[in-house]
Amino acid sequence: MKLAKKECVVMLLAGGQGTRLGELTKKIAKPSIPFGGKYRIIDFPLSNCVNSGLDTIGVLTQYQPHILNSYIGDGKSWDLDRMNGGIQILPPYQRSGDSQWYLGTANAIYQNIDFIDQYDPKYVLILSGDHIYKMDYSLMIEYHKEKNADCTISVIDVPFIEASRFGILNSNRNGRILDFEEKPKTPKSTKASMGIYVFSWNKLKKYLKIDNKNSDSSNDFGKDIIPLMLKSGEKVYSYEFKGYWKDVGTINSLWQANMDLIGNSGLDLSGDWVIYSRHAERPPHYISKNSIVKNSIVSEGAVILGSVENSVIFSGVMIGENAEIRDSVIMADVQIKKNSIINYSIIDEDVVVGPNLKIGTPKEKDSDITLIPRESIIYNAQEV
Amino acid sequence: MNCLGIIFSDMQDWNITELASHRSVAAIPFGGRYRLIDFPLSNIVNSDINKVCIITKSNYRSLMEHVGSGKDWDLSRKKGGILIFPPYALGENHGLFQGRLDALKRVLDYIVSSKEKYVVLSDCDMIYNINYRDVIDYHEKKNSDITAVYTRTNIEKDSSIHKILYELDDDGRADDILVYPITKGTYNVGLNTWVMDKDFIESLIYDAIARNYKDFSYDVLARKVHSLRIYGYEYTGYFAHIDSLQSYYENSLGLLNANNLQRLFYSKTGPIYTKTKDSTPTRYCTDANVKNSLIASGCVIEGNVENSIIFRGVKIDKNASVKNSIIMQHSAIGENAKLDSIITDTYVQVTNSRILLGYSNCPFFIKKYSVV
């Protein structure tokens, strides 16, 4: 069967474990981590695609894919249930000859060359499911065309002290990249790669094949493909993105990104650039006559009988009488029973706490975030 | 489920002129994020019925926009699915239908060509959460011609005129059926929901054509109560009848009662589905003060809200005070404004420092798109 030609195919890398998130990613892949009251991280790249007019997306999965797979379903929540294109989940598969797991980001794409070739695209957009941001990819593809580039890398200005945590790009006045260093000790610029690449497909295919023959390669875009293309003199350009962009790869950054929603500080999800998501059908949330809810966001189906301050409350959360929640992220369907006090914590989905318990230490300069893993049941043994 | 659903969007639209003047009764917003059609549609879907038609009367644009392809109710199907019938002229019967039987005559072809064994009819002004499978089982067991769903409830004199009352014998068969009586007391009040065999409803329609019957309640139920086997099926869950602005107001605020909320939305039968809007979670600012209220998503609350229902996308500014009120979607309440016992329709703007007062037995209604 011949499929309709697409100008650009999107490949979303969603197989990463996200080890720095500890218990949060023990059972689920990083892109399916809940965020902001009703979303999961993958909603951001998917919604950005749809809002940018891109409708053909392959999602590369490997680590703990079940929740992600069922979340995506047929893609209708993002309007991606399409006649031509739409969303497809691409796990590693068996073939005649050598079959293997995805060995790195570039290898994952290499193993799916046939998938991309079905659509005979001119460009391929590579995304990861690790970041919270709103971005119009169509502008970046336009830029790629204007520069007649072989590869375009999206960059963002980061503070100089943090630059050594990122892949840093050094480019000339025209935007053409001169060199690329992964986590440099003495960064030459503050332009960090966002892990978003537009490739001309014929060029990418060529370098994926060369890279695959190199047994010393780690098969990674940042470490191998980009340096190889630069060395070979291909036209690699940087595209500067301005706006809110947050890597949520650590417990602290995930907590902070959630908090950025509350005061509308930098991250505003209302407006025309809608972030779509899939969610359970719930009635409006209920706030009782004895409750206090301040400086927080609350999602559908929550029932709040206690008090909530500086927190993000997901859908279906139940907060009992006299319970107090401060500086915390309470994920979907958590039950906090009466008189329990939660401070500076991330409570993962389906946890039951209390009654009469204290979780977390009040947020001060050097206090740490407490993380309660999903489906935990925590109660006071003396009261049972 | 081997059953066809037929929903009447506007059987009683003359009762709620404020809310239904520019929309179908079916499209009246209710409960913070729903429209009345969501309740019968969800009942149908939760009962595994996957073929349903909606019979409309007039002003059905907002209803069609809400229902769309039916995919939010899982009714966008190859087999079955949802069909909206615009008003349909039949032979000499031009113009709007003049009663339920008249409406059914106009969709006769659709009913005849359906292959389902049973048909369930329901309206949009009655709110309840039921599994029709149980009603159909009862219908089979009693071998009845028509099974009417009722709930036993106390009615007061002035609200009784829009209800059908069933008097049943010990076996549950109807002895007497009173249509829109003026009375008070505890009765078996019909939910305007009936189950019939498809073959039987066809014969009813043929008979109605031959005798020029137009009204199902008078010409079938009341007239044929003894010649047909009409049985009552008792429903005991949450029930509300929206037949006036006052009952709309009372039943809306009634959702603030935890027991009502639980029985309507968290019933074992299943959830209530509605059109997804992908609005953000609601944001509460530092000065927000909210008590005993139901708040939908996509709102920004900076002021005070008490005993109220707030729909999606509402904005309540600093120091504004909203009490005992229903604020429909995309309305905005300005700074220092005070509202008590108010119903605002959608897209209403109340500017800064306005003071609007209704009373609990006489809520004040503000029309769609008004700027106060």
Brief write-up:
The complex is a heterodimer of chains A (384) and B (372). With 384 residues, chain A is an alpha/beta fold.
Q: How does this model look, in words?
A:
The complex is a heterodimer of chains A (384) and B (372). Chain A has 384 residues and is of the alpha/beta class. The mean pLDDT of chain A is 90. In chain A, β4, α2 (66-72) and β5 (86-90) form a beta-alpha-beta unit. Chain A has helices spanning 43-51, 66-72, 105-110, 113-117, 137-146, 201-213, 221-231, 251-259; strands spanning 8-13, 34-35, 39-40, 56-60, 86-90, 123-128, 131-133, 151-157, 167-171, 177-182, 191-200, 236-240, 245-247, 285-287, 292-294, 296-298, 303-304, 307-309, 312-313, 318-319, 324-326, 329-330, 335-336, 341-343, 345-347, 352-353, 358-359, 370-372, 377-378. In chain A, the strands form 7 sheets. Chain A has a 7-stranded mixed sheet. A 6-stranded parallel sheet of chain A has the order 14-17-20-23-26-29, with no helix packed on it. Chain A contains 8 helices and 29 strands. Chain B is α/β, with parallel strands linked by helices and 372 residues long. Chain B has 2 domains: 3-265, Spore Coat Polysaccharide Biosynthesis Protein SpsA, Chain A (Alpha-Beta Complex); 283-366, 3 Solenoid (UDP N-Acetylglucosamine Acyltransferase, domain 1), CATH 2.160.10. Helix content of chain B is 22%, strand content 30%. Chain B has helices at residues 17-20, 38-46, 61-67, 100-106, 108-113, 132-142, 198-211, 216-222, 245-254, 258-265; strands spanning 3-8, 29-30, 34-35, 51-55, 81-85, 118-123, 126-128, 146-155, 164-168, 174-179, 185-197, 230-234, 239-241, 282-284, 289-291, 293-295, 300-301, 304-306, 309-310, 315-316, 321-323, 326-327, 332-333, 338-340, 342-344, 349-350, 355-357, 364-366. In chain B, the strands form 6 sheets. In chain B, strands 1, 4, 5, 6, 8, 9, 10, 11 and 12 form a 9-stranded mixed sheet that branches. A 5-stranded parallel sheet of chain B has the order 14-17-20-23-26, with no helix packed on it. Chain B has a 5-stranded parallel sheet with strand order 15-18-21-24-27, with no helix packed on it. Chain B is globular and about 65 Å long. At the A-B interface, β14, β15, β16 and β19 of A face α10, β14, β15, β16 and β19 of B. β14 of chain A pairs antiparallel with β16 (293-295) of chain B, so a sheet runs across the interface.
